[in-house]
Amino acid sequence: MKQTITRIAVILTWIMGSWMPAAWADGLPYVQDFTTEAKAAQAKQVPILVLFMSPHCVYCERVLQEFLLPMGRNADYDTKVIMRQIDMGSESKLLDFKGRSTTQSKFASMHKVRMVPTIKVFDAQGNELADPIVGLLTPDYYGGYLDNAIDQGLAKIRAN
Question: InterPro entries from the entry (predicted)?
Answer without folding.
Answer: Thioredoxin-like_fold, Thioredoxin-like_sf
